[in-house]
Amino acid sequence: MTTRKPRDPNAAKSAPAAPPEEAAAIDFEKALADLESIIEKLEQGDLPLDESLKAFERGVELTRHCQVALKQAEQKVEILLRKTGQPEPFATHGDTDFNPNDPD
């Protein structure tokens, strides 16, 4: 029989990672903002190892959530394009033939 060590009440606390079903409930923009915040904290290198691992784990969950949300959005766009037909490509500032005064 294995016994667990009691949790150290003086250990630094971090926000617990949200359960996967809760991560799915947040919107893309919130997930992306949270992910950027986690990246900043990890890049500073000031977190203890345990907190860094928890933050990294949460970052992986958020990354997966964002990837799923982007894939779903991509699929919706593809469905809409199939229903309405392919739009004509438009010129952007990076194109060599871009003319902002051209009405076409």
What would you say this structure looks like, in words?
This protein has 104 residues and is mainly alpha-helical. The protein has a domain at 20-84: Helix Hairpins (Orthogonal Bundle). Helices cover 57% and strands 0% of the residues. The protein is built from 3 helices and no strands. Residues 1-16 have low confidence and may be disordered.
Short description, anyone?
This protein is an all-alpha fold and 104 residues long. It is built from three helices and no strands.
What is the average of the pLDDT values? 75
Query: Taking Cα atoms only, what radius of gyration do you get, to the nearest Å?
Result: 22 Å
N- and C-termini, Cα separation: 76 Å
Percent strand: under 5%
Which structural class do the helices and strands define? mainly alpha
**What percentage of residues falls in helices of 4 or more residues?**
55-70%
Choose one word for the global shape: elongated
Q: Extract low-pLDDT stretches.
A: 1-16
- CATH top level of the domain at 20-84 is Mainly Alpha
Keywords for this structure?
Helix Hairpins, 3 helices, 104 residues, mainly alpha, single chain
How do the helices and strands line up, and which of them pair or pack?
Layout lengths: L19 H6 L2 H17 L4 H36 L20
Helix pairs in contact: 2-3
